[in-house]
Design a protein that fits this description.
Structural class: alpha/beta
Mean pLDDT: 79
Order of helices and strands: HHEEEHHEHEHEEEEH
Low-confidence stretches: 1-24, 34-71
Strand order of the largest sheet: 5-4-3-8-9
Distance between the termini: 130 Å
Strand content: 15-25%
Helix content: 40-55%
Radius of gyration: 39 Å
Largest sheet: 5 strands, mixed
C-alpha cells in the first residue's frame, strides 16, 4: 500500500473521533427527547389531578355552606303568611286557619326551659290578657317534642299555646331556622324570631335576632296599633 493510501485510510476509519462525536451527540439528543417525552405526561397528569382536587374541594365548601333555610327566599313583611298545621301542648292540632280574621303573634324560641326562652314565654303569658283585648292570639313555637313543651308549660305555669315543629317545616317557612354560631363553630338551629300577622293573613311585622328583655311589650304595642 502506498503512503498516500495509508494516510487517507488513517483519517477515515469507522472508529474515527469525528464519527464517535456524531454518534454520542445523536444518542444524547435521543435520550433528552425520550426523557422529555416521559416527563410531559406526568407533569400534565399532576396539573390535571391538582385542578380536579381543587375543584372538588371548592364544590364541597359551596355545598356545605348551603342550608335548607338558605335555599328558600326569606319571609318579608307584606307577604301572605305561610299556612301551617302542627301539634300543640295538650294534644290538639293548630292551623293558621283557626285564627281567621284575628291578629296572631308567633314567637319562635330555640329551646324549652332555657333561661332566655323561659323569660320570653313568661313575658308573653304575663301580657296574655292584654293581647286578647287587642284582638290578638299568641303562639310559641320550637322544635321541642310535645312532652318537653308540656313540661315547660307546667313548670312555669305558661298561659300561651306551645307548638311543636320537630320537622322544622314551619320554622323554615317563617325564616326562623338557619345558621348560628357558638364558640367559633357554625351549626343550624332556631333563630329567635317573632312574627305579627294581621287579620288579612298578611305579615305585618317581623322581629329577627330578638332580645328578650322588653320584647313582649314591644310586640303588644305593635299589635294594638295594627
Amino acid at each position: 500500500m502506498s503512503k498516500k493510501s495509508q494516510k487517507k485510510s488513517s483519517k477515515t476509519p469507522s472508529g474515527s473521533s469525528t464519527a464517535k462525536k456524531k454518534t454520542l451527540k445523536t444518542r444524547a439528543t435521543t435520550q433528552t427527547r425520550s426523557a422529555k417525552t416521559q416527563r410531559t405526561p406526568a407533569s400534565k397528569s399532576t396539573k390535571t389531578a391538582a385542578k380536579a382536587g381543587s375543584h372538588k374541594a371548592a364544590s364541597k365548601q359551596l355545598n356545605s355552606s348551603k342550608s335548607p333555610g338558605a335555599a328558600k327566599a326569606a319571609l318579608t313583611e307584606g307577604q301572605k303568611a305561610p299556612a301551617f298545621r302542627l301539634p300543640r301542648d295538650g294534644g290538639d292540632v293548630v292551623t293558621l286557619a283557626d285564627y281567621a280574621g284575628q291578629k296572631l303573634v308567633l314567637f319562635f324560641y330555640p329551646r324549652a326551659d332555657t333561661p332566655g326562652c323561659t323569660r320570653e314565654a313568661i313575658d308573653f303569658t304575663r301580657l296574655a290578657d292584654a293581647f286578647t283585648a287587642a284582638g290578638t292570639a299568641v303562639l310559641g313555637i320550637s322544635a321541642d317534642p310535645l312532652k318537653a313543651q308540656e313540661k315547660f308549660r307546667d313548670k312555669h305555669k305558661l298561659g300561651v299555646p306551645l307548638i311543636s315543629d320537630e320537622t322544622h317545616e314551619m320554622l323554615e317557612a317563617y325564616g326562623a331556622w338557619g345558621e348560628k354560631s357558638m364558640y367559633g363553630k357554625s351549626f343550624l338551629g332556631i333563630l329567635r324570631t317573632t312574627v305579627l300577622i294581621g287579620g288579612d293573613r298578611k305579615v305585618a311585622k317581623i322581629w329577627r335576632n330578638v332580645r328578650v328583655d322588653g320584647h313582649a311589650d314591644e310586640v303588644l304595642e305593635a299589635a294594638r296599633s295594627l
